[in-house]
């Protein structure tokens, strides 16, 4: 996570200033490209070039919304939004993806119409190659700017913009190829190339739509991040185990984690609190995660009772992929009770109630309380 501060930024965040500058650069360059390509496309009657021009217009709109998204996402937390406003970036990307879908669909319709009706072939002129060549160079410059911005900020919108710029270079090259083929061979493939560019716009829009909706719904944390978090926590003396890791994000730099940390039941509450407090501070400093830890006491001398071992063995044999932790046996009233957490794979149809029912059939002399965890 980026932690460097800049006095020149309204928010004090270097990534904010970099994002704004990159967004403004994208707004200006894409607006100029749209105007130039649109003019050329109309003059030479090329649907491929016009489609590519509107692709640049959508990129310009994306830059505008990115700048607005950066400004809104940089607003501090308030009473109504205690986790901040960083998810505005995803909302901005969602708007851009919808605009791109509409543009791609409209030009796909126009391209197919040209193929079917056999309209007049494009009237290619020398200045068209100049404009298209300059466009490829500008898109290359955009890819470099966005790529450098991503390396400095680790901002996903910057990474997406860099990838999109590289793809736009290819789309403009396709439009240029359409003009060259017509001038050299007389083959009128303009409608087909227009359809290809439209398909590319639609593909990019769907990909962006997925990337923007997914974090709004709540992405599962990456295995790498979970692994680093577990490794960090287990490195402390006194930590016996880590489980029930949950990570959720409210933006690139606003991620929160909840974990259960196992410590010896022989430790005092004060010692456990100091240990967890230290871990929470270190995880924030090193991994950028706001950590909330729940302490689970583990009885080390003697380990599990024979009956607890029997339960673990039974569940392991009965259900593939099931893991058990926090297994406790207590005496409540006249009947003993068994409490346990069952980790169940997401793809399994098994439920916590299924596990409890199987245990009741296995040994009806206990009451069973199963907490279902998906992994």
Give a verbal description of the structure.
- With about 375 residues, this protein is α/β, with parallel strands linked by helices.
- It has ten helices and six strands, in the order H-H-H-H-H-H-H-E-E-H-E-H-E-E-H-E.
- The strands form two sheets. Strands 1-2-3 form a three-stranded mixed β-sheet, with helices on one face. Strands 4-5-6 form a three-stranded mixed β-sheet, covered by helices on one side.
- Helix 1 runs antiparallel to helix 2.
Calculate Rg over CA atoms: 29 Å
Structural class, judged by helices and strands?
alpha/beta
CATH class of the largest domain: Mainly Alpha
Return the string of H and E elements: HHHHHHHEEHEHEEHE
Biggest sheet layout: 3 strands, mixed
What is the number of domains? 3
CATH topology heading of the largest domain: Alpha-lytic protease prodomain-like
Question: How helix-rich are the residues, as a percent range?
Answer: 55-70%
Task: Please report the total strand number as a whole number.
Answer: 6
What is the fourth-level CATH superfamily of the largest domain?
A: Cation efflux protein transmembrane domain
Using the alpha-carbon principal axes, give the shape: elongated
- CA-CA gap between termini: 26 Å
Low-confidence stretches: 1-12
How much of the sequence is in beta strands?
15-25%
Q: Strand order of the main beta sheet, please?
A: 1-2-3
Q: Average pLDDT, to the nearest integer? A: 80
Query: What's the helix count?
Result: 10
CATH architecture of the largest domain: Up-down Bundle
């Amino acid at each position: 996570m980026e932690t460097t501060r800049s006095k020149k930024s309204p928010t004090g965040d270097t990534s904010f200033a970099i994002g704004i500058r990159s967004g403004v650069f994208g707004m200006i360059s894409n607006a100029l490209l749209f105007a130039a390509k649109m003019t050329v496309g109309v003059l030479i009657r090329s649907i491929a070039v016009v489609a590519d021009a509107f692709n640049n217009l959508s990129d310009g709109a994306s830059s505008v919304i990115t700048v607005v998204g950066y400004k809104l996402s940089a607003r501090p937390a308030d009473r109504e939004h205690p986790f901040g406003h960083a998810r505005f970036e995803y909302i901005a990307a969602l708007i851009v993806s919808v605009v791109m879908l509409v543009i791609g669909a409209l030009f796909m319709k126009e391209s197919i119409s040209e193929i079917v009706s056999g309209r007049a072939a494009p009237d290619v002129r020398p200045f068209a190659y100049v404009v298209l060549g300059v466009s490829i160079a500008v898109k290359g410059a955009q890819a470099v700017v966005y790529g450098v911005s991503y390396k400095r900020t680790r901002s996903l919108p910057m990474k997406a913009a860099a990838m999109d710029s590289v793809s736009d270079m290819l789309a403009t090259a396709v439009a240029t190829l359409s003009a060259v083929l017509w001038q050299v061979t007389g083959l009128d493939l303009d409608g087909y190339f227009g359809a290809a560019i439209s398909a590319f716009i639609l593909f990019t829009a769907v990909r962006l739509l997925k990337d923007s909706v997914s974090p709004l719904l709540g992405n599962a944390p990456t295995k790498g991040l979970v692994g680093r978090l577990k490794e960090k926590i287990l490195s402390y003396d006194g930590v016996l185990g880590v489980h029930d890791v949950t990570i959720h994000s409210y933006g690139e730099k606003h991620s929160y984690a909840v974990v259960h940390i196992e410590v010896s039941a022989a430790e005092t509450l004060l010692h456990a609190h100091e240990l967890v407090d230290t871990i929470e501070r270190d995880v924030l400093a090193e991994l950028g995660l706001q950590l909330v830890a729940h302490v689970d006491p583990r009885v080390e001398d003697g380990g599990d009772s024979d009956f607890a071992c029997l339960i673990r063995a039974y569940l392991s044999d009965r259900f593939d992929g099931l893991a058990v932790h926090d297994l406790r046996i207590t005496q409540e009233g006249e009947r003993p009770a068994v409490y346990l957490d069952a980790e169940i794979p997401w793809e399994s149809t098994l439920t916590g109630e299924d596990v409890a029912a199987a245990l009741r059939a296995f040994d009806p002399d206990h009451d069973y309380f199963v907490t279902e965890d998906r992994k």
